[in-house]
Design brief:
Elements: E1 2-8, H1 14-27, E2 32-38, H2 51-56, H3 58-63, E3 82-87, E4 89-90, E5 93-94, H4 96-102, H5 105-111, E6 115-121, H6 127-139, E7 143-150, H7 156-169, H8 186-205, H9 211-217, H10 228-246, H11 257-288, H12 290-300
Parallel strand pairs: 1-2, 1-3, 3-6, 6-7
Antiparallel strand pairs: 4-5
The structure holds flavin mononucleotide (FMN).
Flavin mononucleotide is lined by residues 10-15, 54, 57, 88-92, 121-126, 163, 167, 183.
C-alpha cells in the first residue's frame, strides 16, 4: 500500500474540482491510500471579497507572511510516498494559506526527501508563484517532480474582467451576454485523470524524472508565452508596492487603506493599458529574441530553480 498525502486549499471549489479529477486514478486504485488535508486559515478569507479586502491581502501575500491555521489533521509519524500540493497563485505568489502551511515547523518532517507534485489553478499567471513554491520546497529538501496547471483560456483582458466579477461578486457564469464563464473548463477537468495516470505510471516505474516531460506532452502544463513579459514586470514591481503599503500598517489597519485603494486602481488600470502593448511586444519576442524566448519557456516547463 502506498500512502499519498494531498495538501490543498480551495476557496470556491475551483482548485478542488481540478484536483479531484487528477487524483481519481489514485482513489480508484486499491494499492493507494489517499489522505487529503484541507488547509484552513483560523480567520477564513472572505468570498466574495470586497474590493478593499481583496487588495488588502496583497502586501502580506507577496511578502510571504503566514496566517494562523487550524491544526492539521495529519499523522506526523506516517511516511508518505508521494505528496500533492494544490494551490492558487495570489498576486503572482503562493496564496497565503498554502504559503503558511509551507512555513509550519512540522512541514519539513512531512515533506523532507519526498517527491511532490503541484496542481495549480489560476486565471493565467502562475510562473512567479511556482518559483516561490520551488524555493519553499528546496528549503524543505522536498523534490518537485511534477507540475500541472489549470488556467482560464480567455484572453488576458477578458479574464481580468471575468476574474474580478468572480472574486468580487461571486459571478462565475456568463454575464452581459458577452463575457464567458470564468475558470476551469469541463474539457480540462475531463482530461485531468490522464495526468493522474501519468504520475502513477512514472511513480510505479521509479521514473520520477520523466513525469514532467510526459505531462507537458499531454497538455498538463499551460504557459502563455504572450504573458511572460507582463508577469515579469509584475514580479519586479509587486514587492515594491507591497513594501509601500505595509510601511503604513498591518493587514486590515485603517492607516494603510488609502494606499490599498490606490493600488486597487493602479493595478487593473496598468493591466488594461499595458496588456495590448505588451501583447504586441510579446508577439514579436519569439521572432526578435527567439533563443531567449525559447529558453524561458523551457525553463518554466521544468521543475528546478535557476542556478
Ligand atoms: C487574492 C487573489 C489573487 C489572485 N491572484 C492571481 C494571480 O496572481 N494570478 C492568477 O492567475 N490568478 C490569480 N487569482 C485567481 C485565482 O487563482 C483563481 O480565482 C482560482 O481559481 C481560485 O481557486 P479557488 O476558488 O479554488 O480558491 C487570484 C485570486 C485571488 C482571490
Amino acid at each position: 500500500m502506498k500512502n499519498v498525502l494531498v495538501i490543498y486549499y480551495s476557496q470556491t471549489g475551483q482548485a478542488k474540482l481540478a484536483l479531484d479529477a487528477v487524483l481519481r486514478p489514485f482513489e480508484e486504485n486499491q494499492n493507494y491510500h489517499v489522505h487529503r488535508v484541507l488547509i484552513q486559515p483560523k480567520i477564513a478569507f472572505p468570498f466574495p471579497w470586497s474590493y478593499t479586502q481583496f487588495f488588502d491581502v496583497f502586501p502580506e501575500t507577496v511578502q510571504g507572511i503566514p496566517c494562523e491555521l487550524h491544526p492539521l489533521e495529519i499523522d506526523l509519524s506516517m511516511q508518505y510516498d508521494l505528496i500533492f500540493i494544490a494551490y492558487q497563485p495570489w498576486f503572482l505568489s503562493v496564496c497565503v494559506p498554502i504559503s503558511s502551511f509551507l512555513q509550519l515547523p512540522q512541514t519539513k518532517k512531512l515533506l523532507e526527501g519526498k517527491p511532490v507534485v503541484t496542481v495549480i489553478n489560476c486565471r493565467n499567471m502562475w510562473l512567479g508563484a511556482q518559483e516561490k513554491m520551488k524555493k519553499h520546497l528546496n528549503a524543505l529538501n522536498a523534490k518537485l517532480v511534477g507540475n500541472i496547471t489549470f488556467v482560464d483560456h480567455s484572453s488576458n483582458l477578458i479574464s481580468l474582467i471575468t476574474v474580478l466579477a468572480f472574486v468580487l461578486n461571486g459571478k462565475k457564469e456568463k454575464f452581459m451576454g458577452i463575457f464567458p464563464k470564468y475558470g476551469v473548463t469541463q474539457k480540462d477537468v475531463d482530461r485531468a485523470p490522464e495526468y493522474g495516470k501519468i504520475i502513477m505510471r512514472h511513480f510505479e516505474k521509479g521514473d520520477l524524472e520523466n513525469i514532467q516531460p510526459t505531462l507537458n506532452a499531454s497538455g498538463g502544463l499551460n504557459i502563455r508565452g504572450n504573458l511572460l513579459l507582463m508577469e515579469g514586470r509584475g514580479r519586479v514591481l509587486f514587492p515594491l508596492y507591497a513594501n509601500y503599503i505595509s510601511k503604513k500598517g498591518t493587514q486590515g489597519s485603517a492607516q494603510r487603506k488609502t494606499r490599498v485603494r490606490i493600488f486597487g486602481i493602479v493595478l487593473p488600470t496598468a493591466i488594461l493599458i499595458l496588456s495590448p502593448i505588451i501583447t504586441i511586444i510579446s508577439r514579436l519576442a519569439p521572432i526578435l529574441a527567439r533563443k531567449k524566448f525559447k529558453n524561458e519557456i523551457a525553463y518554466y516547463s521544468q521543475n528546478s530553480l535557476r542556478g
